[in-house]
Structures are given as C-alpha cells and as structure tokens.
Fold each of these.
Amino acid sequence: MRSRNGKPDICLFVIVMILVIFGLAVLYSSSAYNGQVRFDDPAYYFKKQLFATLLGLFAMAGIASMDYHALARFAVPGYLLSLALSGAVLLFGDAYNGSRRWLSIGPLSFQPAEYAKPAVILLLAAAVCKMSKVKNGLKMAAVMGMVLPIVGLVGTNNLSTAVIILGIAVVMIFISNPRYLPFLWIILSGTGFLAIFLSLEQYRLERLAIWRNPELYEKGYQTMQGLYAIGSGGLFGVGLGNSMQKLGFVPEAQNDMIFSIICEEMGLVGALLLILLFILLLWRFMIIATQAPDLFGSLIAAGILGHIAIQVILNIAVVTNTIPNTGITLPFISYGGTSVLFLLAEMGLALSVSRWRR
C-alpha cells in the first residue's frame, strides 16, 4: 500500500546531505597539501570528488523517483555485469599503489568493486523474495552461494571489499531467516575460510604482525602517524584546516585515514558528532526497512544498512588500530569518486523504498 503523499524520507535525505557537505569540507582540508605538492592545485582532489558527488546526486534523485519494484527485473543482469567487470579488472585493470582495482574508459576510471555492493543487495533481495523466506539450510546455502563468485573475484585483489560484500549477504540472510543456529555454522565456516585465505599470502600475515606492534615495522608508519593525529586533537581539535599530520606525515590523508585528520582538527567532540550522524543514518534505514510494504523493500533497506554499518565500523577500527590495516574508505567522507557515486545511488534506492509504507 502506498503512503498518502508518496514522499521520500526527508530525515534520511537531510542526514545524507549533511554527510556529503561535511565530507567535501573535510576532504578539501585533508587533501589540499597533497594536491598542491603533486598537481600544483590544492583543490585537485576536491574538484574530482565534487564532480562525482554531483553525478551521484543526480543518480540518487533519479532512482528515488522510481518504483523500486521495477528494479527486481534488473537484479540478475546487474549482478552478471558486476561479475564481468570484476573479471575485467583482473585482465585489463589499472594498478595504483600496488593494487589492481581500477578500470579505465577513456579519461575516466572507476572501481567495479564499488558497483558490486548495490548489485549484490538487489540480487539477494530478489532471490530471497522468490524463495519466500529462507527457512532451511539448503536454501540458505543456495543464496549464500550466489555471492561467492563475486567475493572470490573481488577478494583476489581487494580483500576488504570482499569481506564487506560477504557481510552484506550475511546480514540480509540473517534478517530473512527466523532461525539462529545455522548462523553458527556460517560464522565457523567464514572464520576457517578467512584463516586459510590469510595464510596463503605472506603479506597478509605480515599485516597481522604490524597490527600487533606497528612501532616495530616500517610499514606501521601510517598507523602510528594516524594515532598521533588522533591523540593530538584532544577534546575540541586544533581547528579545521590546521592539521599537522596531513602535511605528508599521514600518507594519503584524504583516503582511508581521513578519520584521523577529523579527530586532529575537530577533536573527540567532532569525531563523536560524525559517528552520531552515521548512527542516525542507520536508524533511518531501520525505520524504512520495518515500514516497507513487502519483503523486497525491507531487504533492500536492510542490505544498505548492513553495507554502511560494516564499512563505518571497519574504517574506524582500522584507523584506531583495533583491527589490522586494510583499505576501507569512510562512506561519504573519504576520497573516491566511484565510492561516493554508488553510495548516493544506494541512498536513492533507500529513498525509493521509503516512498512506500505499510
């Protein structure tokens, strides 16, 4: 049953816009030094992020105005496209900082792994609806098996994104399944798989050693400088634009470690306010999921909730050295045109679902 006015969730829209504007401001502050040194333009990263953000806002508006039920027919083709793009990265992808994650089309480049996240959300939502509710182990295994190909392709050169995609699948299946015991086997199997996967490459084991004692390793430099930035921020920070650690001490400060610059410039209070914004965002997803008129809409909102929650938690955990360092961006804040584009497209999906209420 459609709501009386059919309007999208205004509260969600406002929170997203605050995060986008805040992200652009913090990105300019954290990237100005690198932009000046590398490209003789302090606004270099800001302008690229602004362009991707504008594209994302257009995508968000377009998707929000659609009937989300019509997207179910594109779930399988969209997922197959993500498999093709992820496979193309392994064959023709561009490498940056030793990681092959980008595809180039003319002057533009993008990360197919970011597109895989909304593609998996749509696929699983449509698949679970076709199976009614996932009630037994075989159906659960079948649904989980659908995402393993993309997890394997992405995980070849981007383990952190593969973990996020797998986490999204677990969240969505958990919500659709009334039983808890099968998830014990999923957790045990996932832990075993992760242990084997980590042991296959020496550099992954090295990351564990660096995580335990970052001060003893040259590669622990970024982690240590990030922690220095967090500690020097104090309660209220040194002021926006006044960070010292972004001046070459924290490598690529505008990327995965941007939360440490936020802590330095805005202090504990600023960091907590940002975390509060993310909590409010997740709360709106939960409201949308519970008010959706059907299982398909609920699972879309729940999948987006799982994606944002997992990525925020992992990014902050990496920056604070709670878990080993790996490349995970902070949603809406870290530099990354592909990331912000598809994040805003996901927000459009959530807004589309919010136009329909029970």
Amino acid sequence: MFKLNKIHKSSRTDIAMNIRFPEDIYTKYKKLSKETGHSFNGLVISAMIYALENIEV
C-alpha cells in the first residue's frame, strides 16, 4: 500500500522536464498537495517511485 510518509525531495541532480497530466489526475494531486502540505512534484515523484518498485511485468 502506498503511504505518504516518505516524499521525494528535489536535488541538484534532478532533471527538469515538462509532462502533461489528464485534468482529473492533476486536480486530485493538487487537492492532495493542499491537504497534506506536500509539494505537487514530491507527491508525483513518490507515486512514480512506488509504482516502479511494485510493478509486475
């Protein structure tokens, strides 16, 4: 289960890039960001790390 206890922090080695989000996903992440006080970017990166670590190919 994905939990919001470890949020990714930006570092100098991060690569900046643009990504397009479906409006419904963007809205949910913005709401979650406001509710938790975590950055939008940190939430998205943390979810991506979790998905990569738990994917079944």
